[in-house]
Amino acid sequence: MTRLVLVGLPGTGKTTVARALADLWGVDAVDTDDLLSQAVGQAAPEYLREHGEERFRLRELEALVAALDSGEVVSTGGGVVTLDEARRALAATVTYWLDCSDEEILARVGEGDRPLLGADPAGSLAHLRAQREPWYREVSRARIDSSGTLDEVVALILDDIERSAV
Hints:
With 166 residues, the protein is of the alpha/beta class. It is built from eight helices and five strands; from the N terminus they run βαβαααβαβααβα.
């Protein structure tokens, strides 16, 4: 199996799906937020709040490069696509864009620690979607509807991989 990377907005299920695929294939799953947190010694949301988005994105790029070097299934932070260098790296891999409705995302993230959603989560999410959607499309083999069950989402990815292999 070639390395597989998942991108998408926060709350679309990237980490959960990556772990499920890795378990299925008996390989490692790597989350760029986890790598970033290990490197900086604090949770990704804390680092973002404390150091700002520009510095956070540079650390996130470092985490992406490390993940691509070490993991077979990689889940990324939702904003990794904002940097040109990250998009070039993602476009050179088998990358899938997980996506679902804003309503579904907001229900999933609930009261989670999502600094970029701020005081107006619905408005902030709509802004992030408008900004990032072209980049997700640019780097991804396919958009996968992640609104179903975990098994359904995994099946959609497996079906696309199978179709692409023929």
